[in-house]
């Protein structure tokens, strides 16, 4: 963790290692100050996801999400009061951290425990959460704002949502009617997004590769869902192999 400047950021990194090991591993592949940017951003994402589900009462969960929206927005004009996450976030991003308020805003849906009525609603949610997260991370590593970046973000976010869908459904966070045809449509959308990103991969710099990682074997997940089968849970070996390939080759596209 040589790129992490202070004990508070290193503590966030250790927490991220436990909660989101794949993003922790990719953050460690970044260089210099970008490492602290990715660690704090990914730690924020984990906290926002947790906050939205931290209370059974949707009103209480909504109030907790609103707190993050307000705190992040206020960082546009002033540093936050001392805080275990916001302070390292400010150190890494400065006033630019205010741009993350929409990541918190998107979690209102989770706090409300509302099912999605359509495939299009899931795609919009994926774009606003995991997709936007990938955009911020990749731009911190020098990626321009090009269609390939947003396509990769959409593909990765939808794949992650489809992996989690069996667990989300009992929480009221899945599709109102989780029919196989809807899940297959989402998988096709994700696969097309990955193809679009791969086709335009030369518009994105190799330095951004750590932020563009879509997890282990994403196309295998999507192919299983399109076939109406449950996707296999990736083994520790496949996760390590995918991360090793990313580190050695810089290949992020699928």
3D structure, described in words:
- By secondary structure, this protein is mainly alpha-helical.
- The protein has two domains: 1-113, no CATH class; 115-254, no CATH class.
- It is built from twelve helices and no strands.
- It has helices at 7-19, 21-28, 33-52, 58-74, 86-93, 101-105, 108-112, 119-140, 147-168, 180-199, 218-226, 236-249.
- The model has no long low-confidence stretch (mean pLDDT 95).
The major sheet is characterized as: none
Number of helices: 12
Rg to the nearest angstrom?
Answer: 18 Å
Could you list the spans in which at least 5 consecutive residues all have pLDDT below 50?
none
* Broad structural category: mainly alpha
Q: What is the N-to-C succession of helices and strands?
A: HHHHHHHHHHHH
**Domain unit count:** 2
Between the first and last Cα atoms, what is the distance in angstroms? 28 Å
Percent in helix: 55-70%
* Shape summary: globular
The count of strands amounts to 0
Q: What percentage of amino acids are in beta strands?
A: under 5%
Protein name: Phytoene synthase
InterPro entries: Isoprenoid_synthase_dom_sf, Squ/phyt_synthse
Organism: Paracoccus salipaludis
Q: Keywords, please?
A:
mainly alpha, 254 residues, 12 helices
Q: Which secondary structure elements does this structure contain, and how are they paired or packed?
A:
Elements: H1 7-19, H2 21-28, H3 33-52, H4 58-74, H5 86-93, H6 101-105, H7 108-112, H8 119-140, H9 147-168, H10 180-199, H11 218-226, H12 236-249
Helix pairs in contact: 1-2, 1-3, 2-3, 3-5, 3-8, 8-9, 9-10, 9-11, 10-11
